[in-house]
Backbone:
């Protein structure tokens, strides 16, 4: 019987097609399985990312010392309906978390809804709560910004709000750098916490000794523009949500502007030397008040019939300085101060920077008073930047709060020769002038004192002073500038009742230099070493 | 033929199902382990962060100074350099030349003299400025 081969029917064709389709599908699945088993599929990146809370980057000082960090905390909520004994639960939770027991008892009494037990629980307190074994507790995870140094450097660093967004200081100024998706590297600031502590300590001592209304100080690297320390008193505790009585969040070194007084003579003399309108040994009459229009310009004390220009600076004569400033006049003075950046808002990472105040009509009288620091108000950081420009060789610098060890190559504002002459004059202030108490043997400190009278009810009050000192060391190769300002200091027995910059701020600057110079690697000069074997 | 193929496909399908199940189960277990590991990493990182902050708090100069003043008999005096580099003594010759080390013997020579101890560098006192001198240096002015 011949073998009958049936022709493929429609059903058989469909079965074959289905089989082929299945074979292809399973081949794909098998290939994928082999790939997963052999090669490994890996964990999707988004899953890893979702486990990491978006945090702010750490803030550290120039040596890596921690200044600010987000720490994990938990907010604890309770559902009182689940408690057998609400009073006992309130007692246990209050002991474990530090919450107010009576508040908890009142909240739990209703036995309904959610009750906030405590915010920002640290991991150890959370662990203590877990050990209670109470039902109906809910932890809400979060992060809280913590400042280990507390009040130290609080003004410059600033604060964040409850959503971890910067609201002041560098926390706000560096917001874009500090907030990232994940793996954010620490942001290294220019601060040196050792120097910061010394500055704060000395300012606090001076503020106490002279019963000041406020005080502040800055330590600046005059080559790189790095702010090594910035202090403002009164300060505040950044880890607390409330200010204590007497605390202030106002950064007096950047947010306030002051008429700084004679310390401003630095710029009058810089201008005169740069424009060759004086020679340093040229005598000036300082024996009687200098009449300018309807006004008379006086000195703090009688300094003799004449003084050479160098001693006009060293003894801080307003009469002599006004005469010197008149040689340049308002038409040259205003552009010169503008070149130094004293008439424009300072550009830096700190957002809270006040704009300078100066007269709209800048005439002869204004030029004379501005020459000795009255009639123009600047914030201390702006002043410090301009002073650094004068003494660092003559190139402008922009103060920075980020670590930046390279020397700033700013625009040349004055010549090297003028800068050198100004350094000599500032050394003279400390050796023979009003700033003798700032001297530190072996460190060749230079500087300038300032004592400004504050304006009150439309005139200057003799008893309300802004006393300051701007010190530079070492003067032959200046590296650091230390500025301290005391707002309304009162003289004491040690100062003979005087509250001038030379009596109050200058010794404080000297103590700061004596303490920080070895820390900063500045060596005593060889003359000192030879004299003290 | 069809029967054989069907049998083969069913077998392959069954094997694939088993493979898929095994892989899925393994993935589930691994995912759990991965989550646990990641949670442990986060926990450890958090603990590191807390400890780092705690370290920064307890080592801050203000706290050290307060503790020092409370517990130690030290005064708050300025940091001083004990000496300058130019005053350091010249570098001494090495204790033994390289050749001597190489040819050293275990027997100590009879005439060996103990090396004289170098004089210690004494701290340089800070030049004290008397109160009178300080007041005399004080100059009133602006």
Residues:
């Amino acid at each position: 019987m011949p073998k009958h081969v049936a022709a493929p029917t429609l059903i058989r064709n469909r079965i074959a097609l289905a089989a082929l389709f299945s074979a292809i599908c399973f081949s794909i699945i098998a290939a994928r399985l082999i790939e997963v088993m052999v090669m490994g599929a890996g964990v999707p990146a988004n899953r890893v990312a979702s486990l990491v809370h978006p945090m702010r980057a750490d803030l550290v000082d120039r040596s890596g010392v921690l200044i600010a960090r987000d720490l994990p905390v938990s907010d604890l909520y309770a559902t009182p309906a689940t408690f057998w004994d609400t009073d006992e639960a309130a007692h246990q939770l209050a002991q474990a978390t530090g919450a107010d027991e009576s508040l908890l008892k009142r909240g739990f009494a209703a036995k309904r809804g959610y009750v906030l037990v405590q915010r920002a629980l640290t991991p150890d307190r959370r662990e203590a709560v877990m050990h209670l074994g109470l039902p109906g507790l809910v932890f809400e995870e979060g992060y809280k910004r913590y400042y280990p140094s507390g009040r130290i450097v609080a003004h410059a660093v600033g604060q964040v709000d409850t959503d971890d967004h910067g609201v002041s200081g560098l926390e706000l100024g560096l917001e874009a750098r500090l907030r990232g998706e994940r793996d954010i590297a620490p942001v290294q600031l220019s601060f040196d916490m050792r120097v910061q502590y010394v500055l704060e300590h000395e300012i606090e001592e001076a503020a106490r000794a002279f019963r000041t209304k406020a005080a502040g100080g800055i330590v600046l690297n005059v080559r790189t523009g790095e702010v090594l320390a910035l202090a403002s008193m009164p300060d505040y505790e950044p880890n607390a949500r409330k200010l204590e009585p007497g605390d202030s969040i106002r950064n007096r070194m950047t947010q306030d502007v002051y008429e700084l007084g004679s310390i401003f003579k630095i710029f009058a003399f810089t201008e005169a030397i740069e424009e060759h309108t004086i020679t340093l040994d040229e005598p000036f009459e300082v024996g009687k008040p200098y009449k300018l229009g309807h006004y008379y310009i006086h000195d703090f004390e009688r300094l003799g019939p004449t003084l050479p220009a160098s001693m006009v600076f060293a003894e801080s004569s307003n009469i002599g300085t006004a005469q010197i400033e008149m040689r340049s006049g308002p038409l040259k003075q205003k552009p010169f101060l503008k070149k130094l950046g004293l008439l424009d808002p300072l550009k830096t990472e700190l957002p809270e920077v006040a704009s300078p105040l100066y007269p709209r009509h800048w005439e002869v009288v204004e030029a004379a008073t501005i020459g000795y620091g009255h009639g123009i108000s600047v914030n201390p950081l702006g002043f410090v930047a301009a002073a650094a420009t004068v003494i660092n060789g003559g190139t402008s610098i922009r103060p920075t709060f980020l670590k930046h060890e390279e020397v700033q190559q700013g625009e040349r504002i004055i010549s090297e020769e003028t800068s050198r002459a100004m350094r000599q004059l500032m050394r003279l202030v400390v050796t023979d002038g009003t700033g003798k108490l700032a001297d530190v043997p072996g460190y060749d400190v230079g500087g300038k004192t300032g004592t400004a009278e504050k304006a009150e009810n439309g005139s200057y009050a003799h008893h309300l002073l802004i006393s300051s000192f701007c010190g530079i060391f070492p003067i032959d190769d200046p590296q650091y500038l230390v500025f301290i300002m005391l707002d309304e200091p009162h003289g004491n027995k040690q100062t003979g009742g005087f509250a001038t910059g030379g009596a109050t701020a200058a010794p404080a600057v000297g103590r700061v230099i004596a303490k920080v110079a070895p820390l900063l690697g500045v060596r005593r000069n060889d003359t000192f070493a030879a004299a003290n074997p | 033929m069809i029967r054989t193929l069907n049998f083969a496909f069913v077998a392959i399908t069954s094997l694939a199902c088993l493979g898929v199940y095994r892989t899925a189960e393994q993935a589930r277990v691994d995912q759990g382990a991965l989550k646990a590991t990641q949670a442990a990493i986060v926990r450890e990182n958090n603990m590191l962060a807390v400890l780092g902050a705690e370290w920064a708090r307890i080592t801050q100069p203000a706290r050290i100074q307060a503790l020092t003043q409370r517990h130690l008999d030290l005064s708050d005096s300025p940091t001083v350099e004990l000496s300058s580099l130019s005053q350091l003594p010249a570098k001494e010759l090495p204790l033994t030349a390289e050749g001597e080390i190489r040819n050293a013997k275990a027997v100590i020579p009879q005439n060996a003299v103990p090396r004289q101890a170098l004089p210690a560098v004494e701290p340089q006192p800070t030049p004290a400025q008397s109160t009178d001198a300080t007041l005399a240096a004080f100059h009133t002015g602006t």
About this structure: Chain B touches chain A through 51 residues (CB under 8 Å). The longest helix of chain B spans residues 2-58.
